[in-house]
Design a protein that fits this description.
It is a single chain. The chain has 370 residues and is an alpha/beta fold. 44% of the residues lie in helices and 13% in strands. Strand 8, helix 13 and strand 9 form a beta-alpha-beta unit. It starts with a helix and ends with a strand.
């Protein structure tokens, strides 16, 4: 995008009454942000949702002063701008009607042909949630997913830190401009995150982390991901808003179950009970629902897992492997029944066997020995 077009686009977004939906209508009709400001009022009036009040505001010269000021900030701080029609813009977010027209980002973000999941939850994460979150990301690591979250306390920062420890790309979607970090205590993680991942926002440099910004931020978290995973949540909370947005976008949602007496399991249990989320007990559940396979193309120098010449299997794994070798492709539930394992346990065992390269998942909840 040229400097001139970016300034016109920034000016458009500064006009009161021009949200993402109206802006897309104007851009689709006129072809560019510059053309919008040069199109006759009579032609603009024919666009659904554009009235005389909005047309008059397009004559406001002050928005160009604000746009030029923001452009200088963008250039000075080497911030990337992602227009919703650009190739670098998150692909799934392009299909969300209220997806941002323009995103600002820092770091080394590469979204091309990647598995992207968002992990959200309470800021008051428990030891149960902590262990589950770490184990989940560790088990998904061979698939080299991108981990998206909101860089907040609790589940968010744990997901980011675990991803960084495993050299996975991780992206923090923030509810303010890129001239600051919130919460400030997380500033120590910024440079490492930007080495392999970074930060995304739709907010300008003069935007502070206001309460309403977090709700807007959540639609980006949900919209850019294949699935949203809720680790822990109270009966009400921002992570439930993200889960609902993901459902609205026809994304898969997963929730970790917990005891009915646990405060930070009530939200997850409710999502599962009302069928707004898939029950999540292990990484195998995600791989099955999303049809992810270990053998899928994995880039960025991550090795594809292959069957080893001498694989060490424990007694449970050997029992399942022998059964699949003898009986061929089998549904997970049948394997559990015939091998005398509960389903929740066999899912975890099968995932470990996939990592060892001795079984592979197939569509329809099938598994076969390699």
């Amino acid at each position: 995008m040229s400097e001139q077009e970016l300034i016109y686009l920034l000016a458009l977004l500064k006009i009161e009454g021009v949200g993402d939906i109206v802006a897309k209508k104007l851009l689709n009709h006129c072809g560019s942000a510059e053309a919008i400001f040069k199109t006759k009022a009579s032609q603009l009036a024919s666009i659904d949702g554009v009235g005389q009040v909005l047309i008059k505001k397009l004559k406001n010269k002050l928005v160009f002063e604000q746009a030029e000021s923001e452009y200088k900030f963008i250039v000075k701080n080497k911030i990337d701008t992602l227009f919703y029609k650009d190739e670098k813009y998150p692909d799934k977010l392009k299909h969300c009607i209220d997806g941002p027209i323009l995103l600002f980002s820092t770091g080394n973000i590469n979204l091309n042909n990647r598995k992207i999941i968002s992990i959200v939850g309470t800021r008051e994460i428990t030891s149960y949630g902590t262990e589950f979150c770490k184990k989940l990301i560790e088990d998904l690591a061979p698939l080299n997913p991108i981990i998206v979250s909101g860089f907040a306390y609790g589940v968010d920062i744990l997901a980011h830190k675990t991803a960084m420890d495993l050299n996975l790309q991780t992206i923090g979607v923030v509810a303010h401009g890129l001239n600051q970090i919130y919460p400030k205590v997380h500033k120590k993680y910024v440079s490492k995150m930007e080495e392999n991942g970074g930060f995304i926002t739709e907010f300008w440099s003069n935007s502070n982390p206001e309460k309403e910004n977090f709700v807007r931020r959540n639609r980006i978290v949900a919209g850019m991901s294949e699935a949203t995973i809720v680790i822990e949540s109270a009966e009400k909370g921002g992570s439930l808003i993200t889960a609902n947005l993901a459902n609205d976008y026809n994304r898969d949602v997963f929730a970790v179950p917990g005891r009915s007496s646990d405060k930070y399991s009530q939200g997850c249990n409710s999502l599962i009970k009302t069928q707004l989320a898939n029950l999540l007990t292990s990484a195998a559940d995600i791989m099955y629902i999303l049809n992810w396979e270990i053998e899928s193309d994995i880039k960025d120098n991550t090795k594809v897992i292959q069957k080893q010449l001498f694989v060490s299997l424990d007694a449970d794994e050997q029992k399942i492997y022998d059964y699949l070798q003898k009986n061929g492709k089998q549904i997970l539930d049948i394997v559990a029944l015939e091998c005398d394992f509960p389903v929740y346990k066999i899912s975890s065992i099968l995932l470990n066997m996939e990592l060892k390269g001795v079984v592979r998942p197939l569509p329809g909840k099938l598994f076969e020995a390699i």
